[in-house]
């Protein structure tokens, strides 16, 4: 098991223990991911980036964790390998945006 | 280096090579994360979860990768440890939602 | 008929002519509203507010229209009066944020 | 003054009285619009559309109002005519999606 698989296992254990997985279809997980991304954005509302980081560091940290947790649940539900999908996307981006 | 540190390094190498890091303040990264989360959601628009997964599997995979890439950039910029912030959040959630 | 009732009628005529209303349950309309809001935000990505307004004026205008169209469809589906819900919210906000 | 202009005037009076307009640049308003759209979406999280409408009617109403208030502030800041931008967008959509 690599580190991502271990993290996904911790998250799956968490939701299995609460019998939550029945609600976790990919569409509702994608909705939740969007909501968490907006909660992260809320930490930056009406503030410069620096002010936000200074005053909301703790909450920013938690909201990034929430976003990652939902993304990892989606990887689990859809049987995606985190490392693989990110490396594939970076390769695709490298073609789209070549280094000058 | 553990597995996410390696991924963060790959992502940082990618954006350093393109001199993009000057634009990557946390506020604009949080904006981008929200935009990518909405692009993922778009794959589920006007469809049931199952239909979406069936017809947009490839794109769903890429959008989840994009979300993870921005989340990892935020971890890099803010010097956050992926494992640590996720485990902390799971612990906090475990208190909030105890197993019955 | 007041001005927003007229606009809602135009929007409803548009979607009735295309037989789209069968898909327009409030949950999927709320998803679409979030997606459009993110498309508006995309016009401001990696730019200052002023630069965005200067370079993307036309698109910003269209995305605001899209957001309003989905909000008006929701008002139509849920039988809400635009003026009434906005005035109620302003009153509630006035209590929450009193003028000093 | 048409009905939209009257509503925008009420909203502008509200924020002028609180001296908020100095913060209301279009980029931060677009961020806020995205956050409010996500709060609306939250009323539908983990629920069918019907269940959400049944259990969260009051809050859905308020969140739609919040979305419209931010959209109208953007119209005010950017000097856009609500009726005009919506009619233009409907015309453009009519070309893109002709009636069969």
From TrEMBL, chains A, B, C, D:
SUPFAM superfamilies, alphabetized: all-alpha NTP pyrophosphatases
Molecular functions per Gene Ontology: nucleoside triphosphate diphosphatase activity
GO BP terms, alphabetized: nucleoside triphosphate catabolic process
InterPro entries recorded: dCTP_Pyrophosphatase (IPR052555), DCTPP (IPR025984)
Pfam families listed in its UniProt record: MazG-like
Domain of life according to the entry: Bacteria
Protein name: NTP pyrophosphatase, house-cleaning of non-canonical NTPs
